[in-house]
Design goal:
This protein has about 120 residues and is an alpha+beta fold. The protein has one domain: YaeB-like fold. Helix content is about 40%, strand content about 25%. The protein contains 3 helices and 5 strands, in the order βααββββα. It has a 5-stranded mixed beta sheet with strand order 1-5-4-3-2. The chain is globular, with a radius of gyration of 13 Å. The two termini are about 25 Å apart. About 20% of the residues are buried.
Amino acid sequence: MTWEILFSEEYESWFKKLPQRHKVAIATDLEVLRDIGPMLGRPHVDQIKGSKFKNLKELRTKVPGHVYRSLFAFDPERKAIMLSGGDKKGKNQDQFYKQLIAQAEVVFENHIKSLQNK
């Protein structure tokens, strides 16, 4: 079984700005997520602490000189939605995650509302 992955506008906007070889590395990790789904764990995926959503996770991608984090969650329809992304290399971890989590939570809330309005 493969798992469906949705991409928020916010995530796509961030992803499109990346260099091609970085996109390929993240896409490779996304394929692993698609194949394994919610059971994928470390080192590929880790739980996010400090979010109001207990199912918020990060896809962890390393490219030489970069440490990418792509935040996602599985929605009630059991689809993964990519919410926000960033490069934490050289940044204050607390500030990096605070900003990335805040963006991801807003996007996920809007996604859940859109599902409820179907």
